[in-house]
Amino acid sequence: MPTILGIFLFNSREISFDSCFAQLFFIHSLQCIESSVLLLMAFDRFVAICNPLRYASILTLQRIAKMGLDIMKMACSDITVNSIYGLSGSLLIMGLDSLLIFLSYVMILKTVLSITSQAERLRALNTCVAHLCIVLLFYTPEISLTLDTQIRE
Q1: Burial of 128 by CB count in 10 Å (0-12 exposed, 13-18 middle, 19+ buried)?
Q2: What element of type H or E holds 153?
Q3: What Cα–Cα distance (Å) separates residue 8 from each residue in 11, 12, 18?
Q4: Domain segments of the chain: what residues?
Q5: 39-63 confidence digits (pLDDT tens)
Q6: Does the keyword Transmembrane helix apply (predicted)?
């Protein structure tokens, strides 16, 4: 955001090395955190649909707190950023998370399609629509921006 403001307000077309490094650090850190949150949301939907009677016993407060702490650890971790690491790390994180999200939705669809009642099937699918929209809104620009940035370098 500071770079964009500098371009629009002051017509500044250069960025210092320290600013570039800080910007890359925050972009990759926040990308990792956002992707992890989306993965946790997919896991939550998977448990809610595939094991609805065991939802409370599987996702206990202790387990939810533990998953939240793993995300906080990622936000505070030390990340050495360079061009190759940035691209491979971004693609690995997004690729692995998107693969796991895809697999969870394949299992969700398998479970939903086994439901005999049409109304129950639609109700189960409606719980996933918001999450799928968020995933698409997140990953589509994220992948295009990552590839665009790396191609320009």
Answers
A1: buried
A2: none
A3: 6, 8, 20
A4: 15-59, 79-152
A5: 888 888 888 887 777 777 877 888 8
A6: yes
